[in-house]
Design brief:
The protein has about 450 residues and is mainly α. The protein has four domains: about 10-125, no CATH class; about 130-170, no CATH class; about 200-330, no CATH class; about 345-445, Rossmann fold. The protein has 24 helices and seven strands. Strands 2-1-3-4 form a four-stranded parallel sheet. The protein has a three-stranded parallel sheet with strand order 6-5-7. It comes from Xanthobacter flavus. Keywords: 4Fe-4S, Iron, Iron-sulfur, Metal-binding, Repeat.
Length: about 450
């Protein structure tokens, strides 16, 4: 069976394990599906993230276990070519938001996010890639090549109700929420200092969303790192890159929409850009959880070679890097207290799935007297493009209303709201009318420059 992702990591799975039936077709991909041992942790409504779709429906059909059963049936009943066109898979995967929680919270570590990527890629091969998928998945290209046109189109759509209704009718993009608008000016970093800083060099990976939509987050992170004693260089494509002026991209939007070859192309750009940094061991710091952690985790599935492992060891989220430097290298940021009531913190699904919330809490503890509550919630429901899809808008809002939006609305007016995910911040603002902020902005505001 031809697969679009590299599933060789599962080659020895099932040897000596009590698997409950590896499908007859599908090779190593089928083994990845069959790791489910029916613990039913995915049918949990208590603490944790898994499984957002089960939480809002209470229907086992929308749990990870049921999705596994659907894949097993399709791979057993159909030929390789036809299995992924099975309507049972469409039904089972409809409400999956690729939150990555099952890989962390399932005892068997079912990676439904990657399983879904392969399924979408296979379905695109059979049916073609829908226009809406190309639009959502292609955000890095649209913003990199046609930024002005994209910004104008979004501004018109958000401000002219007729345009929003037409976009819903012909593209399936819901008219009930605004589309995030690119900033008037994309991020432009000042040149790095010509001399080596006290604490050495770091690379700041400015993702598509920070670069084009919220450049103030990237600038805040650069200011904090510079204040802490690092020389900050902004990640740039390799000079031999076919598009040297288009910012680097993790490929996440392509992976979640099943456009694997596009994701692989972005992965190659990243590897080429960082080849020298891999050899030098330079820390590479990211800001958007899903982007940075996709580089650290899902790049392995694209079959790009052994350098992926070395790169992964140098990748840190902003708060991970600060926490590590504090613990291992004596970093002590000079910070001052911030005004306002107790803050409210929402963790992105990937922060939770990869254990980054510990670092987030550690860095917030650097601010004198700062206190906060963590919202115990599952996925925010926005999940990239999921909350913009007309047929999924209601489900998106139901996920947010479980705990996230009530907590944000209940917070005092002067309480800082913290959310590191771009989609999370959009969902919070849309559903509560309140603006949440990235932790880099908070730490920047707390810098004691006197």
């Amino acid at each position: 069976m031809k697969t679009f992702l590299d599933w060789s990591a599962y080659d020895t799975y099932g040897i000596g394990d009590a698997y409950s039936g590896i499908p007859a077709t599908g090779g190593n991909y089928a083994k990845a599906v069959a790791v489910c041992m029916h613990s039913r942790d995915c049918q949990n409504t208590g603490k944790g993230v898994m499984c957002p779709s089960y939480r809002i429906t209470g229907d086992r059909a929308h749990s990870t276990e049921a999705r596994v059963a659907a894949f097993k049936a399709a791979l057993n009943d159909g030929s390789d070519a036809a299995a992924f066109a099975d309507p049972r898979l469409d039904e089972a995967m409809d409400l999956c938001v690729s939150c990555k929680a099952c890989k962390k919270e399932c005892p068997s570590a079912v990676d439904m996010t990657l399983i879904k990527t392969e399924y979408l890629a296979q379905r695109h091969e059979i049916k073609g890639v829908p226009l809406r998928t190309r639009l959502f998945g292609g955000v890095p290209e649209w913003t990199g090549r046609h930024r002005r046109l994209l910004r104008l189109a979004i501004l018109l759509r958000n401000r002219v109700p007729t345009m929003a209704r037409l976009a819903e009718r012909f593209l399936g993009i819901t008219a009930r929420r605004p589309i995030p608008e690119p900033a008037p000016v994309a991020y432009v970093a000042p040149p790095a200092a010509p001399h080596l800083a006290e604490r050495g060099d770091v690379i700041l990976f400015v993702d598509t969303f920070c670069h084009h939509f919220e450049p103030e987050v990237a600038e805040a992170a650069r200011e904090v790192l510079t204040f802490a004693g690092y020389r900050v260089r902004i990640a740039k494509p390799d000079p031999a890159d076919a598009e040297p002026d288009r910012p680097l991209c993790c490929g996440r939007t392509y992976l979640t929409t099943g456009m694997v070859e596009k994701a692989r192309s972005e992965g190659r750009r990243v590897l080429a850009a960082f080849e020298g940094e891999i050899a030098a061991g330079t820390p590479i710091i990211g800001l958007e959880p899903s982007c940075l952690l996709s580089l650290r985790d899902e790049l392995y599935s694209l079959g790009l070679g052994p350098k992926i492992g070395a790169l992964g060891k140098q990748l840190y989220l902003f708060e991970e890097f600060l926490a590590r430097e504090h613990q291992n290298r004596g970093l002590r940021l000079k910070l001052k207290a911030l005004p306002g009531a107790k803050a409210v913190l929402h963790g992105h699904c990937h922060q939770k799935a990869f254990g980054v919330m510990k670092a987030t809490r550690k860095v917030l503890s650097f601010i004198p007297g700062f206190s906060y509550d963590i919202v115990e919630t599952s996925c925010c429901g926005m999940a990239g493009s999921f909350g913009l899809e007309a047929e999924h808008y209601d489900a998106s809002m139901q996920m947010a209303e479980i705990a996230l939006l009530p907590a944000m609305r209940a917070a005092p007016d002067d309480a800082p709201l913290i959310a590191n995910g771009f989609s999370c911040r959009h969902q919070i603002e849309h559903g509560s009318g309140r603006k949440a902020r990235h932790i880099a902005l908070l730490i920047r505001d707390a810098l004691d420059r006197d």
